[in-house]
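Continuing from the previous page...

OK, I double-checked the sequence for Alpha-amylase against my notes and this is the correct one:
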Amino acid sequence: MYDVILHAFDWRYKDNEVNAQRIGDMGFGAVLFPPPLYSDENGQEWWQRYQPRDYRVIRSYLGRKADLKRAVDALKKCGVRAYADVVFNHMANENRRDRFNFPGEAVLQRYSSAEEGAGFKDDCLYGNLNEGLFSPDEFNKLGEIKNYNDPWEVEEGSLGGLPDLEFCDKVVQQQRECLSALNGLGFSGYRIDALKHLPVAHLEAVFETEGMQDKFVFGEVLTFNDNQEATFLWPVMKTTDFPCYDFVLQETLRKAFAPSGSMRELVDPAAFGQALPWYRAVTVAVTHDIPNNDGFRGVLLEPQDEYLAHVYLMGRDGGVPLVYSDNNQSAGRYPEDRDRWADAWQRHDIAAMIRFHNAVHGMPQRALYEADGFLVFARGDRGIVAINKTNKWQHPVIWTRGMRQGKYRCQIHGHEMNVTGDTFVFAIPPREAQMWLYSGD
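Thanks. Re-ran it with the corrected sequence; updated structure tokens here:
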């Protein structure tokens, strides 16, 4: 079963529907949809999707319930699973008198109005829209988070003014009903936004329930250094069964590709606590938070290093790779981002990496040559990955024992080579990578 996730970041639902066949043909296993719960339908900014107004309605700037259903069904027909990004930590930060009542009196009036009521009925996911979803009793009273290194405050406090939901029976009940209804729309998995802001007991009460056993549920615990990982990520890994974004490995990649770093760190990083266990990892070179938030841009890889990182993540054995593809959301503030990730999902190099990943999926990995500046490893007896971070050609001599003798084709560049004898001399261009697949005798 193909497993590579396409993060269709802030795509309109119709875009997923139109591109479903192409996404399936590329070899993606799943598409991660933006948060689908009701948010400001006129809010073009991507962050609006992370400010839900009501769990019971599917409507946003990206489309309505019928649009979402068509997109999920179109992907399913092409053998691609649909995952939804769910925001259960908080509700929308709205400037209104009843800001702790959701969806609020004005929205409830829209639900019942003669002019708009029928449309909201069509977009209803579950429940009774004649009554409110949450009242002030369902929100934490601590106020803003002041110390982001304090786990208790991070769980109980408000993030940037967003009303923080309490762990209580009413909230758990509504979140369970919401997931059940999303399951009914055809979703096969969920990304838990802001997981480190939710108590473990809350996560278990909502996501470890009947009807969720066969769903792929993974979390985002945003960390960028060893201290943050020790405080927030590793405790989640020890106390739950949820897979998470492998920000530990993303940090290891940043260190390895730095001028003073060593590619040897990438031979088996999980063995030294420099990556999550393979069966609990969603591996990433970049996520939507990194380019779109000022405070996180410092962990962006250089474009060529990001390309090399994707080769490593798609070439290695372990983890579920995620490919981030946007529509230039960050380019308005950062012109250098223009077209960096737009349509990344169908770039030639990404397509080649997915072909390689799918062809060797499940085959064991072993190092063929390791050095500070470059790395060569095998996947089973028919795949070879070579990555050179240096500015010079590298010509390692590798032992061919355990590899098939014959012709190999590089999926990225289209070149062919003939592997014969006990040893073979590789030629790896500067700042480049190769993904070789056995093609025959």
